[in-house]
Write a structure and sequence with these properties.
The complex is a heterodimer of chains A (306) and B (57).
Chain A lengths: L3 H16 L5 H13 L4 H12 L7 H23 L12 H20 L5 H26 L6 H26 L6 H24 L14 H8 L6 H7 L12 H11 L1 H21 L8 H9 L1
Helix pairs in contact in A: 1-2, 1-4, 3-4, 3-7, 3-13, 4-5, 4-7, 6-7, 7-8, 8-12, 9-12
Chain B lengths: L1 H9 L2 H8 L10 H12 L15
Classes of the chains: A mainly alpha (306), B mainly alpha (57).
Chain lengths: 306, 57
Amino acid sequence: MEDLVPMIGQEMMRISDKYFTTEPLCGYARNFIREKQAESMRFGLLTVLHYRMFGGSSEQIYQAAAAIELFILASDILDDLQDGDAPHQVWSQVPAAAAMHTAASFLVLSQQAMLELEFGQAALIRVAHMMNGQLLKAANGQMLDLMNAVTDEDSYMFMVQHKSAALIVMACMTGVMLAGKEWHPIVAQYAEEVGMAAQIKNDIRDLVRWDDKNDFLLRKKTLLTLFLLEEIAEQDLWIKDYFEGRQQSEDIAGRQRMLEEAFDRSGAALYGSVRMRMHFNRFQELLDEVPEAASAKEKLLQIFSS
Amino acid sequence: MLKDAIRTLAASKEKMSMVMGGQLQLAGVSAAEHKALQDALKNQDEKKGNYTLAVWG
């Protein structure tokens, strides 16, 4: 599957050059796509793999995968601009207005690339309808995350289901539907399960790092921080004080080790890991229920594991 | 329930080892939760070939 990554990247660049003909948009777009090419293209790979799993054989699927990745790139840029926590990214090093405009242009470019495909008008309309439905679902989740609107575990799971899982469902289902099939409920379900697992994994990572993306420093409510705060030990009350604004970042400087110990000692780290694995195990069970996935199971697992 | 079970295990390395070895069944924990718990505990020395989920985003 890795050999497909450069092909998807080249398609992104080709589509961008076709429509972004004027500087500086053309240059910004190329730079941002180059940055994306150096990272993973898992969403696009999911589209290609599902297309093939369900019997598709057209080479145009790479353009569809590029369209998916253009949307993901736009989302990443907007997410980084909103959070202001990725100064190393190339789009954080240009004027914010230019980055925002390029991201918005990528959103339209993604749709245009999809509508250009030669899969028949009816199929394209069905796919576009499905994609927009998932993207709008993700938009709801993103706003909940942005506003730190999570209050408990149920609202956290609701946010994750909308924000993260919807995009993986979109990537998989685009492949299924371009292969001429209808919405596949089990594919949707396993994509959602793996999306939930992936987000919990991200949350585990974002808790142990001690930088601008640390969920604790940002006072973000996740499965792990909620677990810890639910029954906090007396020696860890400083964590609650910080979370509730009674202590500031300068008060807790240098307490990374103490925080990690609290997450281990309380069981919060283990709880996150267990919940992540429950979703991943359920994903694997559901995968076994889809006969079309049998031959591609190893490749799918590689995409999610690499 | 799962949360209580995990708090109990976090406080007792002995019980954690017993769950890993399959010698301890936790009350109120479903089969799926128990399997995930064992997977998570074993992950500490996960062998090559076992799939772990990559970080996305």
